[in-house]
Amino acid sequence: MQNLRFVLARTSHPGNIGSAARAIRTMGFDRLVLVMPHRYPDPKVQAMAAGADDVLAQLVVCDDVPAAIADCTRVYGLSARRRGIALPELAPRDAAARVAAELDAGTQVALLFGNEQSGLDNDELARCHAMVRIPSVEDFSSLNLAQAVQVMAYEVRLAMAAHDPSGAMQESESRDRPAAAAEMEEFFAHLFRTLHAIDFHKGRSAMTIERRLRRLFQRAEPDVRELRVLHGILADAERMARLAGAAGDGKREK
């Protein structure tokens, strides 16, 4: 259970922080992370936590989502809106089954929740491996933040109780450690820098292709050794681009 964290991004109401702490504590979880909360600390947090003091005692506040999920290998974003990010979409029970298997395999997992009014924005969703939508009626689809946290904590607890970890453990032993979010971000920075170095975009907007490549590699779930190979390929591409540039400069001088 220590491998699962509940991340609340840009929370508006401090009461929801306390209620979320209470929600996860009732299901046996205790890792709560806040990203740029509008009001924290605040007396309403303690009041609504209703005694979940151990959760509040180790609560972590981060400046941005990348910092909150830096050591996580899997990130699931809770959203009522599909927005423009193409992600695998899971029901809570299906997502919880995956989370249970990943936790048993020793994976660091984050459940990411957005602001009460606007939910997760596109940049936050782009850092997720899948989106989880809690089924609700179409004309009133927005759950209270703490209620959404409670639903997911409950489903994960049920899935963990029912899960047989033997298959997941055997699979995890056959490969290196999966790359964490911070390692993936370092790779994406290298990849996008290399694409610019080789003039891949040719003056066109880079945003669409970079988002597609981000989704591609997140689906692939590379391990740390595979990332090292990819970094090596990119380094060689950058080196060749520099050589080509130097050769071109030499020809122009002549």
What does this protein structure show overall?
It contains 11 helices and 7 strands. The chain has helices at residues 14-26, 43-49, 53-57, 65-68, 92-104, 122-125, 145-162, 166-173, 181-197, 207-220, 224-253; strands at residues 4-9, 32-35, 60-62, 74-78, 89-90, 109-113, 130-132. A 7-stranded parallel sheet has the order 3-2-1-6-4-7-5. The chain is elongated.
Write the layout of secondary structure elements.
Blueprint: E1 4-9, H1 14-26, E2 32-35, H2 43-49, H3 53-57, E3 60-62, H4 65-68, E4 74-78, E5 89-90, H5 92-104, E6 109-113, H6 122-125, E7 130-132, H7 145-162, H8 166-173, H9 181-197, H10 207-220, H11 224-253
Parallel strand pairs: 1-2, 1-6, 2-3, 4-6, 4-7, 5-7
Helix pairs in contact: 1-2, 1-7, 5-7, 9-11
Q: Would you count the extended β strands for me? A: 7
What is the straight-line distance between the termini?
Answer: 67 Å
Mean pLDDT: 91
What oligomeric assembly is this protein in?
single chain
User: Which sheet architecture does the biggest sheet show?
Assistant: 7 strands, parallel
Order of helices and strands: EHEHHEHEEHEHEHHHHH
Morphology call: elongated
Low-pLDDT runs of 5+ residues are 167-173
